[in-house]
Specification:
There is one protein chain. By secondary structure, the chain is of the alpha+beta class. It has 7 helices and 19 strands. It has helices at 9-33, 171-183, 206-228, 233-266, 271-277, 281-294, 313-322, and strands spanning 41-44, 49-53, 55-58, 63-68, 73-78, 82-83, 89-95, 102-108, 117-120, 129-133, 143-151, 155-167, 301-305, 326-328, 344-348, 355-357, 362-364, 370-377, 382-390. The strands form 3 sheets. A 7-stranded mixed sheet has the order 14-13-15-19-18-17-16, covered by helices on one side. Strands 1, 3, 4, 7, 10 and 12 form a 6-stranded antiparallel sheet that branches. Strands 2, 5, 6, 8, 9 and 11 form a 6-stranded antiparallel sheet that branches. Helix 1 (9-33) packs antiparallel against helix 3, helix 1 packs across helix 4 (233-266) and helix 5 (271-277) crosses helix 6. It is elongated.
Length: 391
């Protein structure tokens, strides 16, 4: 009688199949964690979206987002709370999605104070569909007022929201969603070049799965060793290396996707066109206009003011594109001791704490200091003033 430990083809067959047995066992355990359910859905009427920030309008069968605010975002909400009981996924179908944009689900529970909560949606696929599992902290099976948050560069955009659906899913659908999340490409979100985000999708990420697969393979190898001696060396290496190779292929596929998108965006263009095609192209174009039309004195000092203290993306990128001008970019209010006649004050949009009085030409903010200024440019990104004197 032949058994796996004998010198037989069956021994070799079992040895080569060992890593696949480990994978199947992990997949079976994982699928068992998904609760079985029947498929159901609730279509949310996109024509009833209300614009709280940014610009947009309903179309006959979709909703068009035409511009982000000066802070680089748009907030769209459904007016009536939605009963979310029984739904496990949120899906959005988009048209004309642009590189550099990100979209998130936002919601607030009317019965639970604590502010608006945000869940980032995966990057839309080639069909413009993005799907999110709702098994996250803060999402409860109650009723919510929900909406969409779109982030990107300030100014005009072309995004069309065709459909939004709350749905439940079967085990097969959830497993397919999990696989799609693992293989989806997530572009850099401009947070920091020094920050590598971990997996934030539904269920475990691909790295823990690969680790569990390897642990299952090692357990099967140990069992094989106790029962039938050492398996063939090549099969041993396959059982140990296959999880790592699959994980590396997943990483390589995302790298290839990034290479293709980068090539489509920048290849064959001039340096100027590359800047304009980048995610901060609107800020770059605005900075170049300032250099051509406003900042005619290269010795002028520039203060960029925003409503919050410290750095943020818009202020830092604007400073970068305005180099080599001497720029101060941290405070909320003008630093009058560091200003002289001819210097420039740039007030980013949304900073209502610094107000310009048209009749008197004064720039006022909390406190006793006042600047007499000349308005040079009014723009959705920022208004620009030249200092004439200290009031």
């Amino acid at each position: 009688m032949m058994y796996p430990g004998s010198n037989s083809p069956l021994r070799w067959l079992f040895a080569w199949l060992l890593p696949f047995v480990g994978l199947i066992s992990i997949a079976g355990i994982g699928l068992a964690q998904f609760p079985g359910s029947t498929s159901a859905s609730l279509r949310l009427p996109v024509l009833q979206l209300q614009v709280l920030e940014g610009q947009g309008e309903p179309l006959p069968d979709a909703f068009r987002l035409s511009a982000l605010s000066a802070q680089g975002r748009a907030v769209l909400v459904w007016g009536q709370p939605v009963v979310t009981s029984g739904f496990s996924h949120f899906e959005v179908k988009l048209s004309s999605w642009e590189q550099g944009l990100s979209i998130s689900l936002i919601w607030a529970d009317p019965d639970m104070p604590g502010g608006t909560k945000v869940l980032a949606l995966p990057t839309p696929n080639e069909s413009g569909v993005t799907r999110l599992a709702l098994a996250k902290a803060g999402w409860t099976q109650r009723q919510h007022r929900i909406g969409l948050l779109v982030n990107g560069s300030p100014g005009a955009t072309r995004v069309q929201i065709d459909a939004a659906v709350l749905s439940s899913a079967t085990r097969k659908q959830r497993a397919r969603d999990l696989l799609a999340t693992w293989t989806a490409f997530a572009p850099w979100d401009q947070t920091s070049i020094n920050l590598q985000r971990g997996y934030r999708g539904p269920g475990p990420g691909p790295v823990p799965i690969a680790a569990w697969w390897l642990a299952a393979n090692l357990s099967l190898l140990l069992l094989w060793r106790l029962v039938a001696g050492w398996p063939p060396r090549a099969a041993l290496l396959l059982a140990l290396l296959m999880p790592w190779l699959v994980l590396d292929l997943q990483w390589q596929s995302k790298l290839n996707w990034q290479l293709d998108r980068t090539n489509e965006t920048f290849a064959g263009k001039s340096q100027e066109a590359r800047h304009l095609a980048d995610v901060d192209g609107v800020l770059y174009a605005y900075a170049q206009r300032l250099k051509r039309e406003v900042l005619v004195d290269p010795t002028a000092r520039v203060q960029i003011l925003q409503k919050g203290f410290g750095h943020d993306y818009t202020r830092l990128r604007l400073q970068f594109h305005l180099l080599p001008y001497n720029i101060y970019n941290i405070g909320r209010w003008p630093v009058t001791d560091a200003l002289r006649r001819g210097d420039i004050v740039i007030r980013l949009s949304g900073h209502d704490g610094v107000a310009f009085e048209q009749g008197s030409g004064r720039l006022r903010w909390p406190g006793s200091d006042v600047l007499i200024v000349e308005p040079l440019l009014r723009h959705p990104i920022a208004d620009v003033y030249r200092v004439k004197s200290k009031g």
